[in-house]
Amino acid sequence: MFRLLRALVLFSFVAFLSVKPVQAQSTPNSENPFSVPPGLESKVEFWTKVYSEYTTRHAIVHDASNVEIVYEVVYLGEKPLSRRSR
């Protein structure tokens, strides 16, 4: 049993050492490694703003066809609301 365990540990160690680390590929814009398809820039900006500036305590009233148009941001308060109340 001990031989089997020792062999397994040795095999795992050798396998670990034989794996090459993955090199990070250079991107045109190193600050933002994700590319945005043309035409989706405004939608990506909108959702980035939604997830970075607002919480689940906010409701955002925006235009359905043009998300750049935000009519109002409603603060729902600290007290938890039911789904129906929201």
Short account of what is shown:
With 86 residues, this protein is an alpha+beta fold. It is 35% helix and 13% strand. It is built from 2 helices and 2 strands; from the N terminus they run ααββ.
Structure description:
- The protein is α+β, with helices and mostly antiparallel strands and 86 residues long.
- The chain is 35% helix and 13% strand.
- It is built from two helices and two strands, in the order H-H-E-E.
- It has helices at 2-18, 41-53; strands at residues 58-62, 70-75.
- The protein has a two-stranded antiparallel ribbon.
- A hairpin with a 7-residue loop joins strand 1 (58-62) and strand 2 (70-75).
- The mean pLDDT is 76.
Radius of gyration: 25 Å
The amount of beta strand, in percent, is: 5-15%
Amino-to-carboxy terminus distance: 61 Å
Count of DSSP H/I helices:
2
Average pLDDT score: 76
Shape: elongated
Percent helix, as a range, is 25-40%
- Low-confidence blocks of residues: none
What is the makeup of the main sheet? 2 strands, antiparallel
Q: Would you list the SSEs in sequence order as H and E?
A: HHEE
Structural class: alpha+beta
Oligomer: single chain
